[in-house]
Amino acid sequence: MKNLYDAVSHFKSDIYPGLSGLFNELASSQAPNVLFITCSDSRVVPSLITDASPGELFVLRNVGNIVPPAEQAGDGESAVLEYAVKALGVGHIVVCGHSNCGAMHGVVSPGNLATLPHVAGWLKNADETAQKIKESLPEADEATRWKAAIELNVVSQLDNVRSYSFVADALEAGSLQLHGWVYDIAAGEVVDYDSERGRFVEYEG
User: Fold this and answer.
1) Per residue in 43-55, pLDDT tens?
2) Is 96 a catalytic residue?
3) Fewer C-beta neighbours within 10 Å, C or N terminus of the chain?
């Protein structure tokens, strides 16, 4: 904890003064344009990956970057999604998975979750991903299924996001766009889901 306290002191004395104007503007309101949904994994730092300043990203983090579908709404995830779209009016939602995701390892190898009942219960929300892996890669080795699960889960969560009526309305109105990313921790690279080609590709913007 000493490192954290020292870091807070450093922020107050050395970083905050140069950003005080920005923080004074943000003190009373926020207007982020992106809802960034990603994993709780400590190796994934949204503001670092995207070079975002305070106030630019509205962030939802949980185990496995999961958004339960609308018919299972009532949790914190649906509340964040609703607030981002209806109250903040974000123009973009990014669902970002990442390499070596422990949650997705649990999806393809659920036996590893025997001592983690709460994690196992939460990952029931990724049953669709598990089923797709069983159907598409029945004979593949664990590493191949793991990598595939990371990507398939992002696509499944995009489908879940679309299941909310207020998201569907915003998409139809053209005020909202959805994006699926996978972040490679070791390489520092991000690939983007191309729905037309049905696969993840390097960003071509």
Assistant:
1) 999 999 999 999 9
2) no
3) C
